[in-house]
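TL;DR need structure tokens for one chain.
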Amino acid sequence: MIKIFPFRGIRYNKEKVGDLSLVVTQPYDKIDDELMEVYYKRSKYTFTKIIRARVEPDTPQDNRYTRAREFMYQWLRKGILFRDPVPAIYPYYQEYTLRGVQRVRKGVTLLVNLRETEIKAHERTLEGPKADRLNLMWATGAHTGHIFILYPDPEGRVNAILDRKASSEPPIAEAKDDFDAVHKLWAITEPDAIAEVAEILKPHRLFIADGHHRTETAINYMKAMDLLGWEAVGTETPENCMMTLISMEDPGLEILPTHRFVHSVEGFDKEELLRNLKEYFIIEEVSSCEASMGAARIHELKMKDGFDKGLHVMAVFFKDGSSALLTLKDEQIMHDLLPPDRSPTWRTLDVNVLHALILEKFLGIDAEKLARETNVEYFREADKALKKLETDPRGQAVFLLNPTRVSQVRDVALANERMPQKSTDFFPKLIDGLVFNKIMFSGPARKVNRFFKM
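>> reply
TL;DR here they are.
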């Protein structure tokens, strides 16, 4: 079952910071050093100072986590940030363009009770990112980033409630991100509407789309607070975690593929690879007539056609400019190749077809090498991967993939399995800084300073 609560979100004061587009950021794991500097130059109030501050050099007393707390404290004290006076759930809409089509993805940001809600995962987590996020939570007592959650709602009942608010009032916050997506936020404070959303969600499970590390961190933080016996005010407690829920059936929900650039494989031989693949794949090379239209575009269209038919199709491009479409002959190949205790969905994921049947079997790139990125780099944009193949002397091949299906995310999570890394790329990301949740601790007083009571 799902148990949700409204909360008094913390938001930027537009009168103090101006255009919110200047202060909001991509999620913490998308902010590299280069993007961090862009954000720092964009505004002195950039949210990256809270979610991923500079390391400059750090000490136990003065580090990126303590500085994040100080930024949050000072901005709350000076009114740069403020807490909404009334608990709300927040309709969060994203307007974006993909492949020339304008879309709207509709979600709702609220608190989810971690004790009573079943939350299913589909990705493995790493200790480093979890330690990083836990350090930030220890320092700030806040859920600063959105956890992107999927839920079933084939009739669109929750979205209908959100639409009532979004169609009748202007948003309380609006910003454009680095990919030209427009993010809009409203607040539903009416108890009847909140109760209606809670009742619709109650009998279901939740599925993590993005935010596996933050979910596990929130659970670990809750358990630590249980041991300490710290109490909190209202619904903003350690056991209630901020999440943004998006229906699996939302027309604006998109998963993008992540393509693989292969390099530095010892003894790589294109002709030998294609001979080996003929046993398992139908191989279709681009004709000279088609080549005039552009091999990448031809493969994209044929891959989409195969995807729509439920086939397992990918394209491979080589250093010499040649390319081919690969269509798996029979799913039974994957059932025979992979462990029998795996679910049928997991064994026939396109990324597993590529990883197990091509990269590992014929190129020697096993799971360990994939994790270390010894011979593979990952690209969202196909053209960037192909440009890398053209210009990087180490490059040997690029494999273009179709996206993972939402139903596959659900089925793998229900089977308590984990997908390979870089299996899903939900676009656009949920931006950080529009609204966040800060726990307001009330005691024991001797252990809680002024900051934690804010």
